[in-house]
């Protein structure tokens, strides 16, 4: 294969891209001219090489792979990529920390974002969740404030535990997530060993229009392992990209990471009696009552050739759903369905769907979305750009209408309405503390949280202890005693 010739951006050949074209050759000096296209093009592009990083989930690793159906779920959903045992679908995977900037360390205690894009014959389908099964808040207007409280203080420009705990003591529905975050799950040992949860409740819709509510789970085939706090801190200093390197090296060696994709399924009749936990993402569904049903397996088998082009420009959104999978009235899901594509339009431009990592493999015909920066297609030529044109070559797909259905759950009352924090919000965190954590995990959890309380105001420390006391009285006593021990040191 012949070697490529260096050129300018529009193809004009260069004899040497390392030498400005018009530097003076007599007498030295520092003069150049506007005719030095190589120099101006190089400097201008350099000034524009960085795009805005994600406000959250900025630091990430990613890879390509495939999803293979292992179980027949055609009775549950019309989604073609989930039907037909043995069927394979190309996927793009991205896993990130949440709070840190793009250059931050991988091995921090944080919630990981777990995102998978399925390139199906009916368009892209995204599962965009986290590595813990619940979330901190259930009102989407609090989402920006949640993330600000986990980031840098506006004055000191440093992470601030006072700010962190001030937010959470005033949003005590977050205790379930906090138990997960400060437990062993908070610091995974490897991207290859993390769980992935869709978190929200979705609907699986069958060909006949019947539906079931569902939750998506990715379970790693390898054991789920974690780092201790000291181990993670050491690695954060020794190799800030430890998880990123671990994933890359494993794929290079041919040790391909594998996850089982499973669903929990709830019949609509059961949902009518299930209560608030149906759409409340601070809560889980019991796997005893709603066992995991394996659908298929995801295998990551290809590293990106260029990180920026394939991972940094990847755009995920829970609004990307194919026929056979549908949204629910979960207000956090509804808000994310707007916020995620809007973030991508800001970061990548209005035509971000035309970029390689986001481009659908099926034919796309959306002549009402055209023009704008960075249009890379033929822009639909002269086809009508208005609806119900008798001149348009476009046709509708009947199967899209066949999976319509009715929501059986009563709709919410519109208007400002806060779901009060009550005893129900502490039942599942109490079960996690008493039935899932062993005594070693409890003591480690208490020590980890106590370390964050050492320098915050005393009334706020008391509020934190009181909040966790609503989970379990012994938890509060252990935490209060540990804080006193630390303060005496």
Automatic annotation (TrEMBL):
Its cofactor is heme. It catalyses: 2 H2O2 = O2 + 2 H2O. One of its GO terms (biological process) is alkaloid metabolic process. Heme binds at residue 340. GO terms for molecular function: catalase activity; heme binding; metal ion binding. GO terms for cellular component: mitochondrion; peroxisome. SMART domains: Catalase. The active site is at 57, 130. Keywords: Alkaloid metabolism, Heme, Hydrogen peroxide, Iron, Metal-binding, Oxidoreductase, Peroxidase. InterPro entries: Catalase, Catalase_AS, Catalase_clade1/3, Catalase_core, Catalase_haem_BS, Catalase_immune_responsive, Catalase_sf. Pathway: Alkaloid biosynthesis. Its EC number is 1.11.1.6. Residues 7-395 form the Catalase core domain. Catalyzes the degradation of hydrogen peroxide (H(2)O(2)) generated by peroxisomal oxidases to water and oxygen, thereby protecting cells from the toxic effects of hydrogen peroxide. Belongs to the catalase family. This is Catalase. It comes from Aspergillus ibericus CBS 121593.
């Amino acid at each position: 294969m012949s070697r490529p010739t260096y050129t300018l951006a529009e193809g004009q050949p260069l004899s040497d891209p390392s030498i400005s074209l018009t530097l003076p050759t007599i007498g030295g000096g520092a003069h150049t001219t506007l005719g030095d296209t190589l120099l101006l093009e190089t400097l201008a592009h350099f000034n524009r090489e960085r795009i805005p990083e994600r406000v959250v989930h900025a630091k990430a690793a990613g890879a390509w792979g495939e999803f293979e159906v292992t179980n027949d779920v055609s009775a549950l959903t019309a989604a073609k990529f989930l039907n037909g045992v043995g069927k394979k679908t190309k996927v793009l995977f991205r896993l990130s920390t949440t709070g840190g900037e793009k250059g931050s360390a991988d091995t921090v205690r944080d919630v990981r974002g777990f995102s998978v894009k399925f390139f199906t014959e009916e368009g892209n389908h995204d599962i965009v969740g986290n590595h813990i099964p619940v979330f901190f808040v259930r009102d989407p207007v609090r989402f920006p404030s949640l993330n600000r409280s986990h980031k840098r203080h506006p004055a000191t420009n440093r992470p601030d535990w006072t700010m962190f705990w001030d937010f959470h003591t005033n949003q005590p529905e977050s205790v379930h997530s906090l138990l997960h975050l400060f437990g062993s799950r908070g610091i995974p040992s490897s991207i290859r060993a993390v769980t992935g949860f869709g978190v929200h409740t979705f609907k699986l819709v069958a060909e006949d229009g019947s539906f079931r509510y569902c939750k998506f789970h990715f379970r790693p085939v390898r054991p789920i392992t974690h780092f201790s706090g000291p181990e993670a801190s050491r690695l954060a200093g020794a190799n800030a990209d430890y998880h990123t390197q671990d994933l890359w090296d494993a794929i290079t060696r041919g040790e391909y990471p594998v996850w089982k994709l499973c669903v929990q399924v709830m019949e609509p009749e059961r949902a009518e009696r299930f209560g608030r936990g149906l759409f409340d993402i601070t809560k889980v569904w019991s796997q005893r009552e709603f066992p995991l049903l394996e659908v298929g397996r995801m295998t990551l088998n290809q590293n990106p050739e260029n990180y920026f082009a394939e991972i940094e420009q990847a755009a995920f959104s829970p609004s990307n759903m194919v026929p056979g999978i549908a949204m629910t009235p979960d207000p956090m899901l509804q808000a994310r369905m707007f916020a995620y594509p809007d973030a991508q339009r800001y970061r990548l431009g209005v035509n971000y769907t035309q970029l390689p990592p986001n481009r659908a493999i099926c034919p796309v015909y959306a002549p009402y979305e055209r023009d704008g920066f960075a249009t890379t297609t033929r822009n639909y030529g002269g086809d009508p750009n208005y609806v119900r044109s008798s001149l348009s070559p476009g046709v509708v797909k009947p199967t899209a209408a066949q999976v319509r259905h009715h929501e059986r759950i009563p709709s919410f009352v519109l208007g400002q309405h806060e779901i009060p924090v009550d005893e129900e919000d502490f039942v599942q965190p109490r079960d996690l503390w008493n039935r899932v954590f062993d005594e070693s995990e409890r003591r480690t959890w208490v020590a980890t949280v106590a370390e964050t309380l050492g320098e915050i105001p005393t009334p706020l420390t008391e509020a934190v202890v009181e909040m966790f006391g609503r989970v379990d009285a012994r938890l509060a006593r252990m935490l209060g005693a540990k804080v006193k021990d630390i303060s005496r040191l």
